[in-house]
Design goal:
The complex is a heterodimer of chains A (259) and B (291). Chain A has 259 residues and is of the alpha/beta class. Chain A has two domains: 168 residues, P-loop containing nucleotide triphosphate hydrolases (Rossmann fold, 3-Layer(aba) Sandwich); 62 residues, no CATH class. Chain A is built from eleven helices and ten strands. Chain A has a six-stranded mixed sheet with strand order 6-7-8-3-9-10, with helices on both faces. Chain A has a four-stranded antiparallel sheet with strand order 2-1-4-5, covered by helices on one side. In chain A, β1 and β2 form a beta hairpin. The longest helix of chain A has 22 residues. Chain B is an all-alpha fold and 291 residues long. Chain B has one domain. Chain B is built from twelve helices and four strands. In chain B, the strands form two sheets. In chain B, strands 1-4 form a two-stranded antiparallel sheet. Chain B starts with a helix and ends in a 14-residue tail after the last helix. In chain B, 50% of the residues are buried. The chains are: A alpha/beta (259), B mainly alpha (291). At the A-B interface, α2, α3, α4 and α5 of A face α6, α7, α8 and α9 of B.
Chain lengths: 259, 291
């Protein structure tokens, strides 16, 4: 199968401290890749590099066959990279439905020319977008909340909305940063079901998560990060069995031994 | 009666100013302290074009609008990447620079004396020379511009402004070119302020740099913040309220030497009071919080 996302020997240091060192991997079409590792092992920096908020010192990021290493974050988002932030960023001053609309509207719709001169096209487009927005709100289970201010949503609902915004944009590659951290059991279940459904939608997904049960449950493959480098890569089922490996990563990492 | 039309004319001009500043403050989340500078640039450009080059008024209005929008690029390009306090300080600096230029470039702007005898507007051979006539003229010009602002804010463009205001990083991750959005928002707000400047210049027929100081920028900001940012009602309430307060003082019989100072104190108190007790203003939706 073709890889939809490829990292080639990517490294990044902040002030002499290597956050990510020499990482290469590829994500296949409709694959779920779990990334685990202790805090500070470089997982979120990895997401920042893929989504463009941090430029790597060395290495390349490819989306399909396109080298996106030098592209700004908004351009990468425009060609299919969708990111769920750890703190589920949504637009808090708008309603749930408006969040969904702003997520899917494109540059052409947002241009001044369009605003002044293409009213009928805009209103036609809006009908499509509303239907689309409602479809994906239903999909994540937020239909009842469409008129609520985003600010009034619970933390879990905010994450659902943020995921729905990625889906309505039709992002091909989804980067989910700790999708279930800080959620209660019921909400974890909803997100679990949702993440499993992403595969059937043909999405390629990279998940960072500390809950190992969750990661092993949803992932096809696992990458273990340690001290900014790729420590292990393997199929989820095999990695789950390698308890000694996991113990080594989480208990003997250099951060844990400092004290 | 002239007095009422005079007030109405001022209100129509300040409505355009307040609603355009609101595009920056309430919709894009950019606390700009240089709106009076754009007002001044528009006023001077239109005054100079008609007075010194003999251009007709309509062309001067159009050029004042467009050039003020272009000048705004001088502030917006270097500052769009700045956040919070740093952004506010940069607009503060721009305001001071513009004032110093207007006040000191004597050969072009008349320096401290300003420019007198700015031609009145004439439309279809009809001279707009009474406050009532000018109110109709400025009401139409400002009303049409406000209509365009409303169309813009209701369009997807307005939604993307609010997205940038709420969370720049999330907006970027949703495929929005945040820097470009801010530059555009600045240009539109400046264009409106420039047009308002031209309206003011040809109404008063006199411009002076002292009308476009930092204090005037803060006054415009007070209108938006006291009325309430982030929707259309807020700035309208703010404009009417803050323009009519000094007139009330006049009716109370306060002497001319005291009234301006009392007025400033009232504005200051209002601003501080609202920041503490009602950050969203009287009718606003968006509350400014420390970033």
């Amino acid at each position: 199968m073709n890889s939809v996302l490829t990292l080639e020997t990517v490294s990044k240091s902040f002030g002499g401290v290597a956050a990510v060192r020499d990482v290469s991997f590829s994500l296949k079409d409709a694959e779920l890749l779990g990334v685990i590792g202790p805090n500070g092992s470089g997982k979120t920096t990895l997401f920042n590099i893929i989504s463009g908020f941090v430029k790597p010192d060395v290495g390349r990021v490819l989306l399909g066959a396109v080298d996106v290493t030098k592209l700004a974050p908004y351009k990468r988002a425009g060609i299919g990279i969708g990111r769920l932030f750890q703190d589920a960023r949504v637009f808090s001053g708008m309603s749930v439905l408006e969040n969904m609309l702003v997520a899917q509207q494109d540059e052409h719709e947002e241009s001044l020319f369009t605003a002044f001169l293409k009213w009928s096209w805009l209103s036609k487009r809006k009908v499509e977008e509303l239907a689309n927005a409602r479809y994906w709100l239903e999909f994540v289970g937020l239909s009842m909340k469409e008129d609520s201010p985003a600010l009034s949503l619970s933390y879990g609902e905010t994450k659902l909305l943020a995921i729905a915004m990625l889906l309505v944009r039709d992002s091909k590659v989804l980067l989910l940063d700790e999708p279930i951290s800080g959620l209660d059991i019921k909400m974890r279940e909803s997100i679990l079901r949702l993440v499993k459904k992403l595969k059937t939608l043909g999405k390629s997904v990279v998940i960072i998560e500390h809950s190992l049960d969750f990661v092993f449950d949803v992932s096809d493959r696992i990458i273990i990060f340690k001290d900014g480098g790729k420590f292990h890569e393997g199929l989820a089922d095999e990695t789950r069995q390698a308890t000694s490996l996991l113990r080594e990563v989480y208990l003997n990492s250099s951060h844990a031994t400092v004290s | 009666m002239n007095y009422v039309f005079h007030l109405l004319t001022l209100i129509s001009i300040y409505l355009l100013l307040a609603l355009s500043l609101n595009i920056l403050v309430g919709y894009t989340g950019l606390l700009s302290m240089c709106h009076a500078a754009f007002l001044g640039i528009g006023a001077y450009i239109s005054a100079i074009l008609t007075l010194k080059l003999g251009l007709n008024v309509v062309a001067a209005f159009a050029l004042a609008t467009l050039s003020t929008a272009s000048v705004s690029l001088l502030v917006s390009f270097p500052t769009v990447r700045l956040k919070g306090d740093y952004f506010v300080l940069s607009t503060f600096a721009f305001q001071i620079i513009v004032f110093e230029i207007l006040f000191n470039w004597t050969s072009l702007t008349g320096g401290p004396y300003g420019l007198r005898g700015i031609p009145r507007v004439s439309i279809f051979g009809q001279l707009v020379d009474t406050p009532a006539k000018y109110f109709v003229f400025s009401g139409v010009v400002s009303g049409l511009s406000i209509l365009l602002i409303i169309v813009l804010l209701k369009a997807p463009f307005g939604r993307v402004l609010r997205a940038v205001r709420d969370d720049e990083i999330a907006a970027e991750a949703m495929g929005k070119n945040v820097s470009l959005v801010k530059v555009k928002s600045f240009a539109i707000a400046a264009a409106c302020a420039g047009l308002a400047g031209a309206l003011l210049a040809h109404y008063i027929t006199y411009v002076s740099a002292t009308s476009f100081t930092l204090q005037d920028s803060i006054f415009l900001l007070s209108i938006v913040l006291v009325g309430g940012a982030g929707n259309l009602r807020g700035p309208i309430v703010g404009t009417v309220l803050l323009l009519l307060i000094p007139e009330l003082l006049l009716f109370l019989g306060m002497p001319d030497t005291v009234a301006p100072n009392v007025r400033r104190m009232i504005y200051g108190l209002l601003l501080v009071g609202f920041v503490f007790f009602r950050p969203q203003g009287i009718a606003g939706e968006y509350r400014f919080e420390k970033t």
